[in-house]
Design goal:
Shape: globular
Number of helices: 7
CATH architecture of the largest domain: 3-Layer(aba) Sandwich
CATH topology of the largest domain: Rossmann fold
Protein name: Stage 0 sporulation protein A homolog
InterPro entries: CheY-like_superfamily, LytR-like, LytTR_DNA-bd_dom, Sig_transdc_resp-reg_receiver
Pfam families: LytTR, Response_reg
Helix content: 25-40%
Keywords: Phosphoprotein
Strand order of the largest sheet: 2-1-3-4-5
Strand content: 25-35%
CATH superfamily of the largest domain: Response regulator
Distance between the termini: 24 Å
Radius of gyration: 18 Å
GO molecular function: DNA binding; phosphorelay response regulator activity
Order of helices and strands: EHEHEHEHEHEEEEEHEEEEEH
CATH class of the largest domain: Alpha Beta
């Protein structure tokens, strides 16, 4: 797995570099002191996981992160920052956020979650008489309609199976999935924006947010951007 660390402070790069080494996994680690250097290197080398400082000189982490997030396949981006309030602006680009000073415990937690994202998780769902394998990480959301479940995937495809929302909620008991309406369960990693009434996903779909589900959604969302989702 290829990892990139980008920060304009060498001391901060060294901390993350040493944390990576302490994990004792087969990582190839590259470091960059500017976001433009990272972008140039990315053109010829794909990085599965990128630790990207937000507060750098132009172009800053937000600007380069938004460009990298448009690539396919998309790298897993973890923003590092001195101020967590920047996290809301970067949500939708970053997979997680790490607020400096970054501890080894914080780092290891995010790396574990990143590995789950990078290494595809598969699930078998019953489609007629066939067991269909789907990639959990690629599910943007699923909805219940006329006693059927319709999955919506990141590649814009859909899959319809005969099952109940109750069964699917139990089946998809993963940290990033939350039911926000009696007919909808979403993957928080694909949230683009939200209001008290609806959540807009990265595919442009606007999903109603039930008043009864607002608290749990907001709590899970906050945990996600803080990197403490469980």
């Amino acid at each position: 797995m290829n990892i990139a660390i980008c920060d304009d402070e060498q001391q901060d790069i060294d901390i993350l570099y040493n944390y990576c080494k302490s994990c004792k996994l087969p990582y190839n680690i590259s470091t960059f002191l500017s976001a433009s250097d990272l972008l140039e290197a990315f053109k010829s080398q794909f990085y599965d996981l990128i630790f990207l400082d937000i507060e750098m000189d132009k172009p800053n982490g937000f600007e380069i992160g938004s460009i990298l997030a448009g690539y396919s396949p998309r790298p897993v981006i973890v923003f590092t920052t001195n101020a967590l309030q920047y996290a809301v602006r970067g949500y939708g680009i970053a997979f997680r956020f790490l607020c400096k000073p970054i501890t080894i415990t914080m780092f290891q937690s995010v790396v574990r979650e990143a590995l789950d994202e990078i290494l595809p998780q598969k699930a078998a769902v019953t489609c007629g008489s066939t067991q269909k394998m789907i990639s959990i990480n690629d599910v943007i959301y699923f909805e219940s309609l006329n006693r059927h479940i319709i999955f919506h995937f990141a590649n814009t495809s859909t899959l319809e199976i005969k099952d109940s929302m109750e069964n699917m909620i139990s089946f998809f008991s993963y940290p990033s999935f939350v039911q926000i309406h009696r007919s909808y369960c979403i993957n928080l990693n694909y949230v683009d924006s939200f209001t008290p009434l609806a959540v807009t996903m990265t595919d442009g779909c606007k999903i109603p947010l039930s008043r009864k589900k607002q608290t749990i959604f907001q709590e899970r969302f906050n945990n996600l951007i803080r990197g403490t989702i469980k």
